[in-house]
Amino acid sequence: MIAKMKKLTFLVYHKEYDAFLKSIRDLGVVHVATKAQGSAEDAGLQESIRLSTRYAAAIKLLQGMNVQPVDNHAGNADRGMDVLTEMEDLQQQIQQVAHKLQSVEKEVAQLESWGDFDPHSLERLHDAGYQIDFYICSDKQFKDEWADLYNATVINRVGSKLYFVTVIPNHVCADLEVESAKLPEISLSDLQVKREGLIKQNETLQKQMEDLAASAIPDLQAAQAKVHSQIEFSKVVLNTNSLADNKLMLLQGWTPVERIDEIKHFLETEEVYYEISDPSPEDDVPILLNNKGFFRLFEPIMRLYMLPKYNELDLTPFFAPFFMLFFGLCLGDSGYGLFMLLAVTVYRLVAKNIAASMKSILTLVQLLGASTMVCGLLTGTCFGFNLYDIQVPFFQSLKEAISLDNQQMFNLSLILGGVQIIFGMILKAVNQTIQFGFKYAVATIGWILVLVSSAIAFAAPGVMPMGGTVHLVFLVAGLLMAYLYNSPDKNIFVNIGLGLWDSYNMATGLLGDILSYVRLFALGLSGGILASVFNSLAVGMSPDNVIAGPIVMVLIFVIGHAINMFMNVLGAMVHPMRLTFVEFFKNSGYEGGGKEYKPFKN
C-alpha cells in the first residue's frame, strides 16, 4: 500500500531561512517539492556536483585496488579534501611516469638492434670529417658493392632484416633506397638505467597509492556524504520561491501522515508560518511504499519497474503470491529449492552485521527456495532425479496426492495465467472506481462477467452449461456494460465503436497473454531435463576406477548442477518479472510513473 501524504507549505523570513532549512534537514522527514524547470544553472551547485564526482571517482579507483584496510575507523570529512588532492596528485604523477616509461621503452627497442655505443663518438667522427648513417633493409635489398662505395657494415641481423651503417666523408651523399633509422641521442645503457629508475619511481608511487587505499577510503566517503548534503541543501534553496521583494521565502514539501505530529511539534519552536493540507488531484505527490511483513519483501521488485502514482493501487501485495509461485514453477526442482533455503539460512546464522536491506533480500530468497521445494514436488524432480521412482511409502503417497504429468503442468500454467489476468482486470475495475468513479469501471466489470462466466461454463458445464440461459444472461449483461459504458462521457455510438475495438483487442491480446504463461511449464521442464542430462553424464563419463571414478562423477555432478542452477535461477527471476510487468500490469490498467519519497536530510 501507499503511505498517505500531507502537503506542507512554509513561509519564512529571508534572514531566518538558512537556519530553518538546517533545522528541516536535521529533522529529516520533509520531501521538498522541486521546480519543474530544475536548477542546474547555479554555479555553486555545479561546483559541488563536480566535487562529488571527483570523490566518487577516487573512491572507485581506491576500492578497485582491493587493498585490505588497516582499520575500520570512522571517516573524517575534513580530511577528505586533503586525501583527494593527494590522491589526484599521485594519479597525475603515475600517469606522467607511465608516459615517460612508455617513451623510454620505445627508445630501448630502437637501440637494442644496434647495440650499446656512445652517441658522442658519432660527433667526434663528424668533427674528423666522417659521418655515420644507420639503415635497415631486407636481405634481398642489400647490395655487396655498398661495402666498397660507402663502407657499409652489417651491425645486426634480425629475421630477414639487416641493420647496417655507412661511413662516408661529410661531403659525400649516399643515395640508398632503403629505410633510414633515426636513433635517440643517448646510449642504450643510459636508457636502461633511466628505465630502471622510472620503474622504481612507479613502484614507489603505487605503494603510496596502496597506502591511501588502505586508510583513506572512509575519509573520502565521509567527505562525499558531506558534499551530497550540501548539494541537497543547495537544491532546496534554489527550489524556493521568493516573495515580497525577496523578504519572504515560500517552500513546499511532503511528509507521511504518521509524521505530522512530529512536524507540528517541531514547527511550534520555529518562527515560521505553515499550512498542512491534503494533496489535490493535480499535485505530484511523492510515493512511499508502506507494505508490511511478507508483502514488503517484494517492494524491490516493484521498484525495478516503476512506482505507482499516488492515486493508484499499489500492486505489490497483489502480485507477490503469484511471483513466488511462478518462481517455484520456473525453477521446478525440489533439490535446488532446498539448496537455496539451506544456503541462505546457514549464511544468516554465520554472517555478522548484515544490513537490514540485505536481510530482507535474504528472506525473499528463502521464501523463493521454499516455493521451489513445494512446486518441485508437483513433478517429483530433485537434482534431476524423480523422487516418485523411489519405492518409499511417503513419496508414493505424495505422488498420489499432488503429482502432475506434463499435460497437467501445461494446463496448470494456462489456468494460472487466466486467474492472474482476470484478477488483474478486477484490480483495474477497483482502480478505476477509486480514481474516476464507479461508472468508469462498468465496462471493465462487463468484460469480467463475460470472461468469468465463459470460463465457468467451459470448466464446469454441469454448473453453468455453455450457451445456456444463465450463461447467456451473463454474456448479454456483460456485453451491454462493455459496449454502452465503455466511455461514459461520450455518446452511445462512440461507445459502441470503442466496444468493438475493445472486443478485437480482447480476442487477440487476451489469448497471447494467456499463452505467455506456458513459459512456467516450459522453463521447469527444460531445467529438469538438463539436470537429468548432467546426471547421465556424471555416470556415463566417470572412469571404471575405484578412486578416480567417484571423483569424476562428483565433479561433473557438482559443476553441471551449479551451471544449471545458475541459468535456471536467472530465468526463474526474469520470466516471472516479465509476466508481472507485462501481462499482469497491462490487464490491471497500471500506469505508474510516481517519484519516490526522499526526505531532505543529512
TrEMBL record:
It is found in: Membrane. It is a multi-pass membrane protein. GO terms for molecular function: ATPase binding; proton-transporting ATPase activity, rotational mechanism. InterPro entries: V-ATPase_116kDa_su. The chain crosses the membrane at residues 318-349, 361-388, 408-428, 440-460, 466-485, 520-541, 547-570. Keywords: Coiled coil, Ion transport, Membrane, Transmembrane, Transmembrane helix, Transport. It comes from the Bacteria. One of its GO terms (biological process) is vacuolar acidification. Its main location: membrane. Residues 188-215 form a coiled coil. One of its GO terms (cellular component) is proton-transporting V-type ATPase, V0 domain. Belongs to the V-ATPase 116 kDa subunit family. PANTHER family: V-TYPE PROTON ATPASE SUBUNIT A, VACUOLAR PROTON ATPASES. This is V-type ATP synthase subunit I.
